[in-house]
Amino acid sequence: MLPGLPDVAELQLLFAQYNWMYFRGEIPAYRIAYNARFSNHAGRVSYKPPLIELSSKHLAGKQAELRETLLHEMIHAWLHARGENPGHTPAFKKKMRELGLTSIYHDLGTAKPLNESPKRYILRCEKCTMELLRKRKPAPNLVCARCRKPLTVFEVVEIRPIELGRAASRTPPAR
Ligand SMILES: [Zn+2]
Ligand SMILES: [Zn+2]
Q1: Which residues of 137-160 are buried (b: 16+ CB within 10 A; e: fewer)?
Q2: 31-55 pLDDT, tens per residue?
Q3: Is the whole-model pTM more than 0.85?
Q4: Surrounding residues of ion ligand 2, Cβ less than 5 A
């Protein structure tokens, strides 16, 4: 694992812990993973299959931000599990305040949401990790142009943006 980051087993534990601490265990099982290829977002949640991804690049050495991003994505997952609108609704913001989270976006609300849309799909090749973004539900049985492997479809409803300039100018984590 990258320096300054908990390993995925620890992430999974954090998820379970927060689920009981803050959500009464109402969030179903999610896989928590790192994604090293996020260029401008800190986290993302997919409801089908249930997956929360955190940016290893942006969150290395930043414990508070990692916690905040995981909790942020968990609020989406929680609202979705309750059959509520999982977007940045008043219910979302109320829960944020309860958990002491200050902003929907990274860096205290100064960043504009990038490409925020109510629904999107991601097609991913698990072999070469190539990803395609789609607004509409893609046709079934698509294959990777490079590997000819079937693509996995993720219904991603929310992507958490990060402010590029400020994140990049921060001191890198100690090694
Ligand atoms: Zn591929
Ligand atoms: Zn969000």
Answers
A1: eeeeeeebeeeeeebebbebbbbb
A2: 999 998 887 778 889 988 899 999 9
A3: no
A4: 158
